[in-house]
Amino acid sequence: GQQLNQSPQSMFIQEGEDVSMNCTSSSIFNTWLWYKQDPGEGPVLLIALYKAGELTSNGRLTAQFGITRKDSFLNISASIPSDVGIYFCAGQLAGSGNTGKLIFGQGTTLQVKP
Amino acid sequence: GAVVSQHPSRVICKSGTSVKIECRSLDFQATTMFWYRQFPKQSLMLMATSNEGSKATYEQGVEKDKFLINHASLTLSTLTVTSAHPEDSSFYICSVRRRTEAFFGQGTRLTVV
Predict the structure, then answer these.
(1) Residue B110: its H or E element
(2) Nearest Cα to B105, choosing from A38, A100, A44?
(3) pLDDT of residue A99
(4) What is the 3-state secondary structure (H, E, C) of B59-96?
(5) Does the pLDDT at position A64 exceed 90?
(6) Which of A1, A50, A99 sits opposite B97 (nearest CB)?
(7) Residues in chain B within 8 Å Cβ distance of A93
(8) Across residues A69-75, what is the average pLDDT?
(9) 3-state class of B17 per DSSP?
(10) By the CB < 8 Å criterion, does B109 face chain A?
(11) Per residue in A13-35, pLDDT tens?
(12) CB of B107 within 8 Å of any CB in chain A?
């Protein structure tokens, strides 16, 4: 199925460093959602974005809905060991309604060295 | 608190048997639920959309007779993996949309031996 292009695929960083990951597509989206998944668990919603240019924070996490509506990024500041996990972006295509299917990125695996 | 409850979290079954996975929407009525499958180190792959009171919509390549979906009430959808085989071993996750957000269950790790 169709997927978003999420990068980087994996990151190995030192505790305290900032992290940035992004998702891009050739299609226009009306919703971007960012999730974190721990091993053996379902994804947990971190941030939801609904408007082009929207910038939203949740603690040390900040995400933005791209102006072109074709991309989004997630930043994590001052990373800590519990930030370890897989981060997924998910988007809903414009014109698919508010309860339509989501398209997922391939995921970014984050490892943090204490 | 949790929005979606999925059960069981882990199941091991013998090849040829059937396994039922439940997905419950805890605090709102969900006319639509989504079932995903996830292989190790891969992204979530949508299998089907469960519609309350009507037939599920399956994604291309997903066998409807293999993965039976029932959405008999506004708070419960079930996925039954019929005549399971080792290649059906995977992580199955359900999801519900509440307004414009999507929430996921805890997932079910199915191992077919």
Answers:
(1) strand B108-112
(2) A44
(3) 56
(4) CCCCCCCCEEEEEEECCEEEEEECCCCHHHCEEEEEEE
(5) yes
(6) A99
(7) none
(8) 97
(9) coil
(10) yes
(11) 999 999 999 999 999 999 999 99
(12) yes
- Look up residue B56 and give its DSSP letter: P
- Chain A residue nearest residue B2, CA to CA: A44
The length of chain B, given as a count of residues:
113
Q: Is A82 left (phi over 0), alpha (psi -120 to 50) or beta?
A: alpha
Look-up of token digits 């996921």: B104
The distance of Cα B30 from the centroid of its chain, to the nearest Å, equals 14
Give me B66's structure tokens: 């293999």
Per-residue DSSP letters for chain A? ---BEEE-SEEEEETT--EEEEEE-SS-EEEEEEEEE-TTS--EEEEEE-STT-EEEETTEEEEE-TTSSEEEEEE-S--GGG-EEEEEEEEETTS-TT---EEB--EEEEEE-
- Whether A103 and A2 have beta carbons less than 8 Å apart is answered as yes
Give the C-alpha separation, A13 to A43, whole Å: 22
DSSP B55: P
* Residues recorded for chain A: 114
Tokens at B67, concatenated: 């993965």
CA B91, CA B35: separation in Å to the nearest integer? 11
Structure tokens at B89: 């071993």
